[in-house]
Structures are given as structure tokens and as C-alpha cells.
Amino acid sequence: MSLTGNLRTMPVPELFEWLAASRKTGTLVLDGPRYSKKLFFISGDLVAVASENPREKLGNYLVGWGYLTQEELDHLVEMQAHFKIMLGELAVKLGQVSQEERDYAIRVKTEEAICELLLWDEGDFRFLDGVLPERDFAELRLPVHSILLEGVRQRDERQRIAKVVTSTKQRPRLVREPPAEELGPIGSAILRAVDGERSIEEIVLRCRVTEFSVLRFIHRGVKEGWFELAAPVPSGEEVVPDSAWRKLAFEIENRIEVGHLLEAVELLTDLQRKYETDTSVSSYASERQAEIERCLEQWDIPDEAVLEPAIKMEEIMKLGCGPVEGFAFSRVNGRYTVSEILRLLPGGDLYSRAVIHNLIRRGFVKPSEVRSVRPAQGPYPGSSGGDGA
Any residues with CB less than 8 A from the CB of 121 and at least 6 apart, and which? Predict the structure, then answer.
């Protein structure tokens, strides 16, 4: 059974509790105001998280914590497509990090991603029952109830902290030495990293601890008079592969990971157009195209399925869609099959299927039945006398 909805009507804690109580296995996709995330569950336990947010990617931690150089990360990302394996698993197999180091980094990034997710008030979700990543990944069996308890606690405290520490770009400066007996190991490490120049974000990476740990310590320090906060520094470069075409490839992989297949196809087309003479791009594009095709097949919407609108045309205009999506939606009236509508759409077969997939994913249309043969009566969609427009 699949489930779709909006976080206004079913907040994240309730959604997690439903998955845990039902002992669900599959992928929870959440589309937020800025980023999308995928959470993978096995028998009701959270086992992995994938996020579009560059700060929540494992590569951000492995480079920021000094386990990998940016060049090594770029190389690993290029190898992933060939080995069909998650970045952390590949880094362990190549001996670049230990399993313990990998697991700790994954645990930290997972905690950060969940805590940030609990701050979401807006967003759409869908649960893909029984669907898990094709690539091998390291399972972290995290009971949902303990995650929620910690996440809700952190959410409430972060809201209090945000009244004082308004940005992780701010730079704490030591004003008065705190009492040594009140620091502890983590506090001592954070204090050593405070030099008046580093931002909170940079201190988090330098100390290899969670952002919440640093925020809580800095917040306490400001209240106690240990620190003062300087203005935020300009935004730095995000941790992404630095070769020209790999930056675009990075975005394509993000879109595939979170199920935004139409965007992935559009970016892939752009990549091929810009780097048409690069043989490595051609090879990469073929692999990504095959991956998108497999993702589309997982939705299991046969060509003989009849599509019907799930919302009114005026609603789709308010929600926003591209011209091809709008045209495809205008052909959907509960009479025509996927294959019939595909023949009307401009562009290649993969692009057209991604358009229909996007309409279904966003809840604009839905399959209503399967027909083996199109009825003889009635005009073909788009022909003179048709009612689709």
C-alpha cells in the first residue's frame, strides 16, 4: 500500500509513527520548500537517508572532517555509477575510511537530516511501499521512537537557540575563558576551534561533531558571557565535485535519488548538449539514462493504463507546471491510455514518460483502469472533434 499527502495534514512525527507501527519497508520521499529527502525503512526501522541538501551529504562530512580530499571525493563519485554502491561503502572498500569512521559519519548526517526535517511545516510526501535503492548501502537500524524523542527535543531547543544564534555563518569570538570543569570533552574541542575567524559551520566540521552540539555550546557561551558573535561570513562553496561537467552530473544524481525524474531528464539533456564531444560524458549519460528508465519501470504504470485527472485544470495552473506537462494534462480525461498520450507529446520517449511520471508523482493525474485495446468509438486525443483541449 502506498501513501501520499501533505505535512500540514500529517506531520513528520505522525508519519514516522505510522511507518513504525505498520512495520513498513520502502522509501519515504519528502518534498520540502528548498530540498527533497528520501528515507529508507525496513520493517519500520529507519536504515538510511538521502538528501538534496549538500550539507547533509556524506561527502560533505568526509571532506570536511579531513578523511578525503576534494579530488578523492570526485573520484569516488565517478566510480559510484560503475560499482552501483553507496559512497560510504565504496570509501570503506577502497580503504579510505574505516567502517567505524564511515558509520559514525553516516549516523551524524542521519541525525542532522532528521532533526532538520522535524522543523518542516510545509511539504508533500509519498511512501513507495517495498521500494529500496538499487545500490548497496550500509544499514543503520534506528528505531523510529528514539529518533523522534531526540529529534523533537532538539527541535524545541533549536528554536530557543535561534533567538540568540541566528545563523551558522556567524563567527564566535572568545570574550572570557569559561571554567574548565564545565566544559567536558566536546566543549573543550569546540573551545579550541573558536578563533574569532571560523564560522559555526566550520567549527562543526573541524570538531567532527553534530551541528546541534556546537550550537548548544555556543548558545550557552553567549548567555554566560564567554563568547560574542560576529556577523555571518559570506556563503562559501558547497562540497560538490569541481570538474565542470561533474557539477551538473551531481545535480542529475540528486534528482534521481529523490525521484524527480523529469528534472533529471532535462538536466541530462542539457549535459549532453553542453559536452557532446566528451566521451566520458557520453558514457555517463548512457548509464544515467538506463537508471532513469529503471526508476520509471518501478512505478509499474503499464502503457495500457487509462489516466484520469486527480485535480482540476485551474488547480494545476496555480501549482505550477511546465508547458509540456500542461499539454499532457489537457489530454487526460479518463478515456485515453498512457501509450495514446505518449504519442502526442514532443521529445523522445524517455522525456515523455518522465512527464507523465511527474504528473502522477505530483498527484495531478492517476491511473484508473487498464485496457488491452483502445475502444473503436470516439476520436483520438488531439484529433478534430476531440474533447481533450
Answer: 7, 8
